[in-house]
Each structure stands twice: as structure tokens, then as C-alpha cells.
Design goal:
Blueprint (H helix, E strand, L loop, with lengths): L7 H14 L12 H10 L4 E5 L9 E4 L4 E5 H9 L2 H15 L5 E3 L8 H18 L2 H4 L5 H8 L3 H11 L13 H13 L23 H12 L6 H8 L1
Length: 243
């Protein structure tokens, strides 16, 4: 039996509710280690975070047993998370996603092209959970670039790129149009509709429209996959037409 594919909005809602239950909804960089002792074990009865030597966990940085409700992590990942290392934080949040989303069996961080269809689907869902759990929309929508998202919320560069792409329709207008290519495109479209731009105050000539910054390949892959799954993606199509 093929499992139902969770909508992104549903995953985001699960992540937001969990942040609220843990009383960390206002924090940009919550301590992911301390939440296991300060609420998670009550929300998911008996959930434990287990540390093992790196060579005891071969082939993956962490592993989740959804039935036993245990997350086993390499010591290096545990220590990295304590230091605020972005990759380590993403790894722990990813494993937590398997528990929060009610996945089954044993899951571990792996390439999305590996495993069965259900395993690949649950891996993708866990990554989506990690991104929105660590960088929730209501806080991240004010960021002007992927780099700012990464720095503010302590997530990896790839995750920050993808999160920025997800938030593009919501990002507010600001003073850095070169970093906000969506806003630049809107301004360019408006300029093309103006009949007589020189009639504005001061008779100033319209500025040259800014070229949007190239999208990282992982963001393009994410947008194409979202489009394949039925989400309406206009920004990617427009950029391909411009090229």
C-alpha cells in the first residue's frame, strides 16, 4: 500500500505546533540537545537521544528507530550540535522529523535517490520538517537572502538556499533588491508597463533592470521537484524564459 504524500503545509504545521509545545517558538536558534530533556520526552513518550562513538554508527551520522522512539547519533554530531554546527543541527532536526511525522521502521539520513518509494518519501518529509522547524516562516520571511537565513537560524547552506526559495513569495520588499531577485523582477515588469517613465518627478531615466542572481543547482532541483508534484512554480519558469 502506497503511503499518502504529506503536503508541505501539513509538515510545516506539525513543526510549528511542536515549537509551540516546547516553548521555543520565539527562538531563532533553539538548543536542540536541551529540548530532549525539557519537553520532548513528554510529548513523545519515552523518546531518547543516544550518543555512540562515531565508528559504532557506520554509514550514517544518525539513525532513528520510530518504534522504539530512539534517536542514535554519532558523538561528533552530538558535540557539533552543542557548538551550533549547521550540519549537525540539520541532522538532529531531520531525525526528530521522523518521530514528529509518525514515520515507521528505522530511518537514517540518506540520499533521496536511495531506498524504496516510501523510504524516499519519508526522507524528503523529514528534510522538509527540519527546514521549517529550524527556520519557521514567521521568523524567516524577513530575511533578505539565503545567507542571512543560514546565519540567523544556524542551518546548512543547502538548506538555507532551499528555504529561501520556499519563502520567495512571502519575502518583504526591502533595500537589497540584488539579493531579493523576486522583488527585482516585479519592479522590472512594472517598468515595462509604464507608458512614459521620463514623466516622473525630475525627468529621471528609468534604471536598468537588475539581473537576478543565479540560483544554486540544489534550489533549481527543489523547485523542479515541487513543480513535478503539482505545486505552481512561476519564478523558476520565468527565470528559464529570461535565460
Amino acid at each position: 500500500m502506497i503511503k499518502r504524500q504529506r503536503p508541505f503545509t501539513e509538515i510545516e504545521e506539525v513543526a510549528r505546533r511542536l515549537r509551540a509545545k516546547l516553548n521555543i517558538d520565539h527562538l531563532e536558534r533553539p538548543d536542540l540537545i536541551s529540548i530532549f530533556d525539557n519537553g520532548l520526552s513528554n510529548i513523545y513518550l519515552g523518546l531518547r537521544l543516544i550518543r555512540v562513538l562515531d565508528d559504532k554508527l557506520v554509514g550514517s551520522e544518525a539513525r532513528t528507530d520510530c518504534y522504539e522512539r530512539t534517536i542514535t547519533t554519532r558523538e561528533s554530531v552530538y558535540q557539533g550540535c552543542l557548538r551550533g554546527d549547521p550540519r549537525a543541527r540539520m541532522t538532529i532536526a531531520h531525525e526528530l522529523g521522523h518521530i514528529a511525522l509518525g514515520h515507521s521502521g528505522t530511518r537514517h539520513r540518506q540520499n533521496l535517490t536511495l531506498g524504496t518509494r516510501d523510504e524516499r518519501q519519508e526522507e524528503r518529509e523529514a528534510w522538509n520538517f527540519a527546514e521549517v522547524f529550524l527556520a519557521p516562516t514567521f521568523l524567516a520571511r524577513d530575511c533578505s537572502s539565503a545567507e542571512e537565513i543560514g546565519e540567523r537560524f544556524g542551518i546548512s547552506g543547502d538548506a538555507a538556499d532551499i528555504r529561501f526559495a520556499q519563502l520567495l513569495p512571502l519575502i518583504k520588499e526591502g533595500s537589497s533588491p540584488s539579493q531579493r531577485w523576486k522583488s527585482a523582477e516585479k519592479r522590472s515588469e512594472q517598468e515595462s508597463r509604464d507608458v512614459d517613465p521620463s514623466a516622473s518627478s525630475g525627468n529621471t531615466a528609468p534604471s536598468e533592470p537588475r539581473r537576478s542572481r543565479p540560483l544554486p543547482s540544489k534550489v533549481i532541483d527543489y523547485l523542479r521537484e515541487a513543480e513535478r508534484l503539482g505545486r505552481r512554480i512561476t519564478s523558476l519558469r520565468k527565470r528559464e524564459d529570461d535565460d
